Amino acid sequence: MSDMAVTREMFDQVMVPNYAPAQVIPVRGKGARVWDQQGREFIDFAGGIAVNCLGHCHPALVSALKEQGEKLWHLSNVMTNEPALRLAKKLVDATFAEKVYFCNSGAEANEAALKLARRYAIDTHGPEKTQIIAFTQGFHGRTFFTVTVGGQAAYSDGFGPKPADIDHVPYNDLDALKAVISDRTCAVVMEPLQGEGGIISPEPAFVKAVRELCDQHNALLVFDEVQTGVGRTGALYAYMDLGVTPDILTSAKALGGGFPIGAMLTTSKIAAAFKVGTHGSTYGGNPLACAVAEAAFDTVNTDAVLHGVREREAWYREGLEAINAKYGCFKEVRGKGLLLGCVMSEQFQGRARDFLLAAMEEQLMVLIAGANVVRFAPSLVITKDEVAEGLARFERAVAKVVNG
Ligand SMILES: *Cc1c(COP(=O)(O)O)cnc(C)c1O
């Protein structure tokens, strides 16, 4: 089967049509570069949507994968395993958390967080305490529970009756939150920087006030750090820079550096509500995923890499501001660390996708976050040359869009 000719047309023939992938089919990657079937080279500023935190085929990850791949792949949770225990210990040592639950994706980590919050609230405070408050434009995954907690009804409509008792308020709007929170609130769920929603940072005072409101009403604060976690914003987790500690934190995307894994972190007191049999996953915490994630975690959780993220943020901001000074196409460049967004100016409203398509033509992979933001989520260890070359390509793409 390995010599079967593969073309983009096959996608439309054999795949469920829920995606509209680009025309190119990448076959190989190294660092922040990717090559397609024809050998065309691309610079990767997308990072597989904030996943490839160490670029493509980082030697530490390849070696962990090979080593574990020849030892033991999977057991199920009928048994525990060494890589899972080592990774859990490292996560606990590095964060507020005392307990870890492993799964395979961000949505699953959030599904676990939501179920745990509900079970804890019901066990501790009674059956009425089920309200979940989340934020407009928030994104938490695509299972039915997580997509309903997400703040875009368009993604959760059309599937029949939704999980109940979920309310949404605007991000950074304390009064709106005050109006709906009560002693019936089980949890407030938020991204400590909205990613998919458009690269929107929280006001530091807002996050602190959310924490206080949760405490007043015995509600849990859940931080979805699926996109912001594992070094993305320049801290190991974004909460560390905000001076606010959540009760439950979810991590995925960069956690495996490209290998699927998710994790939910919490305190011993809250974790106790997940008694034997209350929740689970066949693959969750399997040795192969955990071995790769351990290597990714060890590599990212160093001063050199975390500091390097701030340094790279400056390279990007400088380069993007210079492009904007010439073309005036962005209202602002926002975000933190290596999760950055260029917001379209009035003249280019709704046209972020045109910039993405023009960038592809210039052999540069970028992302969008809604119709008005071009998003960058590159490797945390992208080199200065790769950034410079990618920005040069981006400038050519911008020029093409601006000049029609
Ligand atoms: C990507 C993302 C998710 C969903 O993760 P999956 O691995 O696609 O299930 C959840 N929350 C946030 C903040 C994300 O960015």
UniProtKB/TrEMBL annotation:
Modified residues (N6-(pyridoxal phosphate)lysine): K253
One Gene Ontology molecular-function label: N2-acetyl-L-ornithine:2-oxoglutarate 5-aminotransferase activity
EC number: 2.6.1.11
Primary site of residence: cytoplasm
PANTHER family xrefs: AMINOTRANSFERASE CLASS III (PTHR11986), SUCCINYLORNITHINE TRANSAMINASE (PTHR11986:SF113)
HAMAP family linked: ArgD_aminotrans_3
Protein known as: Acetylornithine aminotransferase
Lineage of source species: Bacteria, Pseudomonadati, Pseudomonadota, Gammaproteobacteria, Aeromonadales
